[in-house]
Structure formats: structure tokens, C-alpha cells
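User:
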Amino acid sequence: MREVDAAILRRLHSGVPLVGQVASYIISAGGKRLRPVLLMLMCGALGCRHPQRFNLAAVVEFIHTATLLHDDVVDESKLRRGRLTANEVFGNPASVLVGDFLYSRAFQMMVESENMQIMQVLANATNVIAEGEVLQLMNMHDASLDEAAYLQVIRSKTAKLFEASCELAAILADGSAEIRAACAEYGQSLGTAFQVIDDVLDYDGDATEMGKNLGDDLREGKATLPLILAMKLGNATDADVVRRAIESGSTEDLPRVLELVRRTGALDSTRAAAAAQAERAIEAARTLPANEFTDSLIELAAQLLQRRA
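Assistant: Predicted structure:
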């Protein structure tokens, strides 16, 4: 990961000072670097030492960071990872344009792999992520959203880059079709579980640990799984409270919403949905070569359910 961070810093350079300032601001904010970590762990599991692995790990982090810059503008977010978002510090225009820079720099870097399969996976992933973002925008303030539609959004918006990160490792390792499918399955399932737990934490997390405010999803009018299940599991009055909150995007009823997602069992049911996805990831990882890297992939999926931030 030191090599990955070095590649990230090296490729952030631009002759335009503001580009470097905004990009460095959000990347230096920390974060889990989870997508690059997955690519590196998967390479280790497959015994791959391809020199392009550091470059491609930086690519997936650039793509992820670009989505964060754009997301915060769309969502009008003010906090990320415990500090002001880039759009709050530098303004919306700079955030959007530097997000564009990171996307285009990522495509410059992926071309260096000179591997058409890698470019296909990343180009497809980037397109699917963009579709997921638009789909989520269309679903804002829609209290009729069901579980299947919710999963479609998060598998596009979040899980697709997890899937691509793992699949890239299989391509670099020249793995079989079966290995490549197992890597992709692990990434998609882990990414889905990650986002489901993230949506739980918006109603049951620690704002200080998370570095963002509780109820942000509600304020943005997002019908996430805890709310969808609360309307399904609660009585008519409960469902009406949640429906009004989603449609208005108001956090005025947040205390009541927090109480009923717990009382109806919606949070427990959402965690169970995340656990099922994590188990799918574990099953996929168990088809990979047995070694310490595969063990770490399995442990990562298991520990994801204990996430608090």
C-alpha cells in the first residue's frame, strides 16, 4: 500500500495548481483505501506480482475519489471523514471539474496497462457507476422504492467498483474464467454488504466516528433499506411517518424515525441482509487458492459486519 500511495501522489501532479490542491485535499483526508486494498489482496491470493498492480490500484482509488467529489456536490454534503467537504472549501465548480480530472487521469493510467480486458472492465465499471448515480437521483424522495430497486442502485453505484477491483487482479494474474468469476463475485458481494452496513450506520452509527451527521440519507430523501424495511415491518402509522420523511427530505421527524427503525426490527433485518451478502463473498473467496491473502479476504468480509464507521 506504500507503493500504491506513492503512485497516487505521483499521478496527482498537474500544471494547474487548483487541480492538485483539490485532489490532494480529498485524497489526503484518509479513508479506508478499501478498493486498492482489495486489488492488492486479491493479487496476493492469486500469486500475482504484476508490476501494473500498483498503478491499477491507484486507478480505482482515483475513480472512487472522483465519484466522491461529484456525490458531495449533488448531495450538497458539508462533512466527509470528519472535515469539510471539498465543495465547501473550494466551491462546487472546482469540485466537479477536479472530479473530471481524476476520471480522465485514471483513464490515462489504465491505458498504460496495454491490456484491452483491463480497459473494458474499468470503462464498463465507470459507466455503470454513472448510471447508478443517475438512478439514485431519479429515486430521491420516492417512498415507493422497493428492496430490489434499492439493490440495483447500490450494486451499480457502490459494488461495481469493488467488483472491478477484484476482477482486475484476476486479469493481471491471467486467471481462468472460473477464477475471474469468483473474484468478481467476491467483490460485488462485499461491496453490496459494505453499502448496506453504511446505510445502517446512517441511523445507528456514531457521528463522531463516521465523520458525518446521522440522518444525512434522510435529509437527501434517500429510501435506503432500513427505511424500506421499517415501512414493511411497521404498522400503518409507522409507515406513514417514514413515507412523509422521505418525501419531504426533512429531519424534523428524525428522532421518531430512529426509534421506529429500531422498534420494528428494520435495523436487525438490514444487518441480516448485509450478513447474507458477506457470506456470499466468503463462499467465493473459499474457491481461491488457500493462503494468507485469501484468509485475509475471508476475515475482511466477516469483520465488515462489525463496522462502526
